[in-house]
Task: structure prediction
Amino acid sequence: MTKGVAILGSTGSIGTTALRVLARHRSRFHVAALTSNANATLLAEQARATGAPFVGLVSNDANVPDAWCLGPDALVQAAQLPDADIVLNAVVGAAGLDATLAALRAGKRVALANKETLVVAGALATTVAREAGGEIIPVDSEHSAILQCLVGRPRTQVRRIILTASGGPFRDWSRQQLEHATLADALRHPTWQMGRKITVDSATLANKALEVIEAHFLFDLPYEAIDVVVHPQSVVHSMVEFMDGSVLAQVGIPSNNQVRGLTLEERSNAQASLRVLGAGVGTLFLGSELLLELTTIWGSTSGRSIDAVMANYISTFRYG
Ligand SMILES: NC(=O)c1ccc[n+]([C@@H]2O[C@H](COP(=O)([O-])OP(=O)(O)OC[C@H]3O[C@@H](n4cnc5c(N)ncnc54)[C@H](OP(=O)(O)O)[C@@H]3O)[C@@H](O)[C@H]2O)c1
Result:
């Protein structure tokens, strides 16, 4: 029996990536619902390709099939469908909040890309999840990385978590150059292909601040225990430092697909899930070696930066 996945925001960057991942795993997942805001053309194509039984369009459009659900309530309806075992919330902005809460109240597993849910109502969302038996699994690569590093480790052993930041397109720009930065410059992210809002938020680093808030609620850690480090290669997706001084890092060649695949799996079986999906081979292969070197660095005063180690690994690593 396949698991049903409702994809809210299916026409966006995360939504289309998720559909590509699901298409490779039809024996395990089926698409239970698709929603978008206004892009009826792509939504119709996706509905045809996946055979999704529920299709929702938030903005009203006269030329859509009668069976489609129209209006803002479409998100909440999709999130509560009995056939949806997993709800991927890939809507951008606070418009995603009600659907997250509805899914959690219905006891669903929510694969949460919509970080705004936690930024605007983190305490409420985590309380609803706890009380109703729902589950929040992060889609953000940094938080997904932290989750994998925490598997099987009690929270009392965690000293701090370290979110990595690529630094965005303006990392090397002088103050003078920044005065002339354009929207096009901000949209040219060096590492990730993402929607426009998060790309601009990444350029200004506002996105990292949102991610710190997200991490605070997801992992129930005080803000003092959440650090950010700039790491332009984006090979280390994030790290956890434990009370005994050891550090676990989740590493891999930057790829949006990897995280989406993991998110749909059982959190208690994170590493095995990556292997099954075949998307995290690089992570597992590279990780075992890299971890040794990282641990050595933290334990020494050699002064080598993480970036130097990463550069070494990137130059020797062949993907696939
Ligand atoms: N992209 C990434 O790699 C990435 C990584 C980590 C986290 N995230 C987070 O994931 C979320 C989605 O990001 P994205 O980059 O995929 O955004 P995106 O490409 O802009 O896609 C947004 C999706 O949400 C829909 N949408 C927009 N406004 C809506 C509204 N008012 N009501 C209902 N649906 C609406 C859009 O529909 P239309 O196409 O019809 O407009 C589209 O399907 C954001 O919270 C972002 O911070 C993204």
